Amino acid sequence: MTDDPLFIILLLAVCAVAIILMIGLGGFAGGGAFNKKNANKLMRYRIGAQFVAVLLIVGFVWLRGGFG
């Protein structure tokens, strides 16, 4: 499975979501100007990346015959 290109893309999307989440949490914990300037933007990026990751997960399962 690790040699499947779609699986590798899926893992990269999930990692991107985790990285964006960690940056957002770090900014929230630190507060200050960075948080005020970037909190909403990071939230929108995370939601978009999550949407893509979920679509890739569902597509991977569907294409590989996991839904029946």
UniProtKB/TrEMBL annotation:
Record bears the keyword Disulfide bond: no
Domain (HIG1) ranges: 1-68
Domain of life the protein comes from: Bacteria
Record keywords, A-Z: Membrane, Transmembrane, Transmembrane helix
Membrane spanning stretches: 6-33, 45-63
Heme found in the keyword field: no
NCBIfam families assigned to the protein according to its UniProt record, in alphabetical order: twin_helix (NF033233)
Name listed for the protein in its UniProt record: HIG1 domain-containing protein
Species for this entry: Sulfitobacter pacificus
